[in-house]
Design a protein that fits this description.
The protein has a single domain, classed as tt1808, chain A (Alpha-Beta Complex). The termini are far apart. The chain has 4 helices and 10 strands. The strands form 3 sheets. A 6-stranded mixed β-sheet has the order 3-4-5-6-7-8. Strands 1-2 form a two-stranded antiparallel sheet. By secondary structure, it is of the alpha+beta class.
Length: about 200
């Protein structure tokens, strides 16, 4: 799929011209259609989102920690030729007091999570990682439903550092959401395997 001519790099304007049902992003100036999510992808995305949304998507203060704007499938522009539709993305309210708006959002996030699938693994693990490193996104999580792992990467000037790696049976406190336990058996739907 290409909306830009070979001699021109794609921008957010090319995304805006697509039909609403087309899921696409711009990676290195190329318009790339995102494949339909497999059930494992959707379960992992929803399973993780459900565990962090309630405690964190609110103002700071009170019993849950709060302090975040959390969203799914939102287009974020890092530069005119890098516009990504992240599986999960978040902004700290102390840095971004008002909910990010617009299409694409032009405010750098504080946390990004991508759920790997065979069609996007190279993009998420190489191309997006390079852009997020360059733009100093503090935390990049990679959920891998096939291998049932979570990798938490922390930004440093020298490159991302693996702050945590965990498997499907682990219960973790992962930065920047270490205030709550995340049950990876729920993320990967193992907790309900065999249930009627």
């Amino acid at each position: 799929m290409t909306a830009a001519s070979p001699d021109r790099l794609a921008t957010a304007a090319d995304l805006a011209r697509l039909a609403p049902e087309v899921r696409a992003e711009i990676v290195d100036g190329e318009l790339v259609e995102k494949a339909a999510a497999a059930p494992e992808h959707g379960v992992a995305q929803l399973g993780l989102g459900a565990q962090i949304f309630g405690p964190f998507h609110r103002r700071t203060g009170g019993a849950p920690p709060g302090g975040w704007w959390l969203m799914t499938e939102v287009d974020v522009e890092y530069d005119p030729h890098q516009v990504y539709r992240h599986d999960l993305v978040g902004w700290r309210r102390e840095r971004v007091p008002r909910r990010p708006t617009g299409t694409p959002v032009q405010t750098r996030p504080d946390w990004v999570c991508e759920v790997l699938s065979p069609s996007n693994a190279r993009t998420d693990l190489v191309k997006k990682l390079r852009t997020l490193q360059k733009c100093e996104v503090p935390s990049y999580w990679i959920l891998d439903p096939e291998h049932r792992t979570l990798t938490v990467l922390r930004w440093t000037p020298a490159g991302y550092l693996a702050a945590l790696t965990a498997g499907a049976t682990d219960v973790v406190r992962a930065e920047p959401f270490e205030a709550v336990e995340i049950h990876l058996d729920v993320v990967f739907a193992d907790a309900d395997e065999g249930s009627p």
